[in-house]
Design goal:
This protein is mainly alpha-helical and 330 residues long. It is built from eleven helices and four strands; from the N terminus they run ββααααββααααααα. The strands form two sheets. It has a two-stranded antiparallel sheet. A two-stranded antiparallel sheet has the order 3-4. Helix 8 packs parallel to helix 10. The termini are far apart.
Amino acid sequence: MMRSPPPPQSQGSNYGSPYNGQIGGQPATGGGSFAPAFGGFMNDQTAQMGFQVGKTAMMAGQEYMEHNINRYVSIPALKHYFNVSTPYVLRKLLLVLFPWRHKPWSREQRPSGVSQDTNNNAYSYYFLPPRDDLNSPDMYIPVMAFVTYILLSTLLAGLRGAFHPEVMGLTATAALAIIIVEILGLKFGTYILSINNDSQLLDLVAYSGYKFVGVIVTLVVSEVLNRGQGTGGWAGWTVFTYTFLANAFFLLRSLKYVLLPDSSVSTPAGSGMHTVARSQRNRRTQFLFLYSYIVQFIFMWILSRQDGSGGGKVSPPPAAVAAAGAKAAT
């Protein structure tokens, strides 16, 4: 039988079949011609020395930052206050807003091992993280509430037609200034009251941020009830009074176990909860009342002061006022 001859083979073609495993008549290799070069670069001694120098520099920089930051704030202790969970956040928000019937207020402790005082078989104790103890203070809610307050104040200013680019910055600056003043006051109070435990100072800083939860509720509810007229009037003052009293009661009950350990209850050794003398206890009681009611009332009133007619809002910049005046004149 007659058959047609096969097609001629091209000797100089640069296009090979994708199925025969050849390219340009040469057998294909698994990694291509660039793979050995890349592998050779990784195995080169100069490259390895460069990676080692970079790794050493990063470790030195990290150690330097941790050393300088730990001079002011303990990073491991700070991580404890951000160990939260979603159920804890929801329950803690309800506790801050409705603290009236909550019991108990004491924090839970667990033994971590035998302390150095082995003759008395003393154990060292530690407080449970917030995710495991509802009464434990955290910094997640205060930080999130602080950011939410800034965004909410800016949004309300825009809804009232009073927004300008400086509103967010000025609101954040005012809120941050209040926090700094409060922390400095707490630092001074801990010095006067001889509170030398760093964990107690961090507890006070964490508790100082819960006021933003009540301020946010005051702003939102007052805006709805007053129909955009701010926090003035009977509705605004009613909501503010409730959130202030709830926050004050929450702080009074929570800080009692930080500043005023109960002398009638025996505390475990190494727990960090030491009893205080009667004179020192009276001074701490006065400080607790002053901080929970007087100081919180002033700061919460400043933060929640919103008036739809212009009071409590930041005035527009002079350039905007001049432009508006020129437009009105023309």
